[in-house]
Design goal:
Layout lengths: L5 H43 L1 E5 L14 E5 L13 E5 L15 H12 L10 E8 L4 E4 L6 E3 L2 E2 L20 E4 L4 E5 L21 E2 L3 E10 L5 E2 L4 H4 L7
Antiparallel strand pairs: 1-2, 2-11, 3-4, 3-11, 4-9, 5-6, 5-8, 6-7, 9-10, 11-12
Length: 248
C-alpha cells in the first residue's frame, strides 16, 4: 500500500495554484499589451494614413447618403496629388458652416467616443468638416454654364450625368452662372446634389471666396464602409475629366 505524505500533497496543490495564478496574470498582461499596441497602431494609422468620417448632409447624394460612413486617404494631398473628380474632406475654410453649439458629454460618454474615434468607429468631428467633389485644380478656369447647361473647365465641357443629382426636368448643372480662376494651392469644389449643396459657388462671399485652401484638405474619400448595403469604392470619374488639359 502506497503512503502519500500529506505535506508533499499540500505543497503540490499550492504550486499548482501558483502556476495557474501566474498563468492568469500573464494572460491578462498579454491582453493589455495587445490592446495598447492596437491603440498605438490605430492612432498612427489615423494620424498619417486614414480616417473615418460620416456624412451629415444631403449635399453629395446620390453618391453619398446621410449617415454613410467613409474612409479617407490622408496621403492626399500631402504625398499624393489631388485630381479633378476626387471626393475630398476638408476643414471649414471659414464661414462655410453655421456656428454649431458646443456638444456637452459626460466623462464616460466622452471617453467611449474618444476610444471609438481612435479605432475608426466614431467620427466626432464630422460636423466640423465638409465633403465635396473637386472640379477645379490650381490655375483652372471653371465656368458655368454653356449653351447646353454644362460646366466647363479650361474651356472643355464636362458631361457629369454619371454622378450628378439634379431636380426633375432640370438640365443646367448649376443654378447660377459663374466664371472663376482657381488660385494657387486651392481647389474649386461642388456637391453632386448640385441644387442642394452649399459648395464653392455659394461661398464666394466668405474669406476664402469659395475656394478651398489645399492646407485645409484632410484627404480623399475612397470607400463607403457603412452601412454594409452601401459598400462601394468611390470613383473620381477620369472619363469625365480626361479631356481637360492642364491649366494655362
Amino acid at each position: 500500500m502506497t503512503h502519500i505524505d500529506p505535506a508533499t500533497s499540500t505543497d503540490d496543490v499550492r504550486d499548482q495554484k501558483r502556476g495557474r495564478s501566474k498563468g492568469v496574470r500573464l494572460f491578462i498582461r498579454d491582453i493589455v499589451l495587445i490592446f495598447l499596441a492596437a491603440i498605438i497602431i490605430s492612432v498612427g494609422i489615423k494620424a498619417f494614413l486614414i480616417r473615418s468620417f460620416y456624412i451629415p448632409s444631403e449635399s453629395m447624394q446620390d453618391t453619398l447618403e446621410v449617415n454613410d460612413r467613409i474612409i479617407v486617404n490622408e496621403l492626399v494631398p500631402k504625398l499624393v496629388p489631388v485630381q479633378r473628380g476626387d471626393i475630398v474632406v476638408f476643414k471649414d475654410p471659414g464661414g462655410w458652416l453655421p456656428a454649431a453649439p458646443p456638444v456637452h458629454q459626460n466623462g464616460f460618454v466622452a471617453g467611449v467616443d474618444w476610444v471609438l474615434s481612435i479605432v475608426g468607429l466614431s467620427a466626432p468631428d464630422s460636423n466640423d468638416h465638409l465633403i465635396k467633389r473637386v472640379i477645379g485644380l490650381p490655375g483652372d478656369k471653371v465656368a458655368c454654364c454653356n449653351a447646353f447647361g454644362q460646366m466647363t473647365v479650361n474651356g472643355v465641357p464636362l458631361d457629369e450625368k454619371q454622378y450628378l443629382k439634379l431636380p426633375a426636368g432640370v438640365t443646367k448643372v448649376a443654378g447660377n452662372d459663374f466664371s472663376v480662376t482657381v488660385p494657387k494651392n486651392s481647389l474649386w469644389v461642388m456637391g453632386d446634389n448640385r441644387y442642394n449643396s452649399a459648395d464653392s459657388r455659394l461661398n464666394t462671399d466668405t474669406p476664402s471666396k469659395g475656394f478651398v485652401p489645399m492646407d485645409d484638405v484632410v484627404g480623399r474619400a475612397f470607400v463607403i464602409t457603412w452601412p454594409a448595403s452601401h459598400w462601394t469604392w468611390l470613383d473620381n470619374y477620369p472619363n469625365v475629366f480626361g479631356g481637360v488639359g492642364a491649366a494655362q
